[in-house]
Amino acid sequence: MSHIRGIILEGYSHAGKTSVLKALKLLHAQEKSAERSVVVLSEHYSQVLNNVRGELRRLHRDDHLRLLQERVSMLRQLSDWADYLGPDASRASRGLFFILERFHLNHRAAYPDEPPREIESLESDLLRLGANCVLLTVSSERIAQRMQSRTPEEWKNKTEEEIGRSADEFRQTQSELRKQARLSIVPTLEINTDAKDWNAYANQIMALSGMQ
Q: How far apart are alpha carbons 119 and 122 in whole angstroms?
């Protein structure tokens, strides 16, 4: 499906997904031949843990998989419409570019004991839609500093022990995401974001997706 392509941004909180997402949107908008149709779904439309009217709720495995399937089905329907219109139009007018945040790797890491068949079926659909995955990571020794620099107000009254526990959770989740990326059938590029060079990362990602 050459008329549709996209990027899936994965990574733990504070790894830089929001900053890279902003840079990607800006870079895509500046490309003259870029697709005019763009779908960007932040993690609030795909993550496992959600703030529902002030209450944190974790989706059951089946409910979360169904949620992801609905998002992919939406993209598939848009792609089918482009097929129906025919191949004569330019990529700019007919093409579709999408960005998804916290998607299949987030599901795999949250439910690592799930039989792989269903999530692999979803990943096959993502492949057919031209998806590439990018896993944003932070070096282990910089995790505590990154967490505190991103949201200083949240951490100023935390003890060293509390900060250490949160950093350990970051490391464990990041390790699980790496493991699941190796198991996934969607091609995954890992980018270390220690330097916080969001524009450089966005250029690297757009090159991966075939724009530059």
A: 5
Best CA proximity match to 110, nearest among 142, 68, 154, 138: 68
CA 87, 88, 89, 90 dihedral sign is: positive
- Structure token digits, residue 117: 């068949």
The amino acid occupying position 133 is C
Q: CATH number of the domain at 4-208, please?
A: 3.40.50.300
* Tens-digit pLDDT profile for residues 109-162: 999 988 888 899 999 999 999 999 999 999 999 999 999 987 788 888 889 999
For the chain, give every domain's residue range: 4-208
pLDDT tier for residue 170 given thresholds of 50, 70 and 90: very high
Distance set, CA 134 to CA 19, 35, 155, 156 (Å)? 14, 20, 28, 31
